[in-house]
């Protein structure tokens, strides 16, 4: 427990939870940003589809149309996934707004502890002195000054000792429904199955010739040789 006098300071559980919450929020934001990269893929497919070469080559037009359709399907599916992550995980992480007030309570408790230690040391110093009349008066005044400060510290300390473990334990009750909702709303198996389906269909539409890898390499090499034979291409 990090709130007992005389013990070495430890990482406060709220700080650990705060760091973990920030990391989770950052990771989920990165996930949504990665998914939204599909919008860039849609833009590329649109640019390719509008290329004048598509007007001259029906096969190329068909391939680019298939690519554009696949990219739009992928983008729609990714957008749905992003919306679910936003609703089930990112929005609930507003829970982290409690940390500033919690950290302030810890700082107030720390300040109360320092005041308590300072006055306690003052009392102990007077207690060691010879009990003359003036010294007895000073000791009495120091004890009276210490009493409310000690009570204030003990009250703050007691409150944190009671509330911090409850707060830390509540993280499970708070985050678990969010992840359950995310998993049920957008199972990863379904997501990757859908992505596999989209690109499998795209491959079938574009690669109608069903060429093997060696055959495709020979075809590409033949086309490169044709380009090299053009007078506008400089020799290596």
UniProtKB/TrEMBL annotation:
GO biological process: one example: plasma membrane tubulation
Official protein name in the record: Bridging integrator 3
Keywords: Cell cycle, Cell division, Coiled coil, Cytoplasm, Cytoskeleton, Septation
PROSITE patterns given in the database record: BAR
Domain BAR: 1-215
Pfam families xref list: BAR
Function: Involved in cytokinesis and septation where it has a role in the localization of F-actin.
One GO cellular component term: cytoplasm
Coiled coil: 102-129
Compartment(s) where it occurs, according to its Swiss-Prot or TrEMBL record: Cytoplasm, Cytoskeleton
GO molecular function: lipid binding
Transmembrane segments annotated in the record for this chain: none
The keyword Cytoplasm belongs to this UniProt entry's keyword annotation: yes
Keyword Cell division appears in the UniProt entry: yes
Taxonomy, superkingdom: Eukaryota
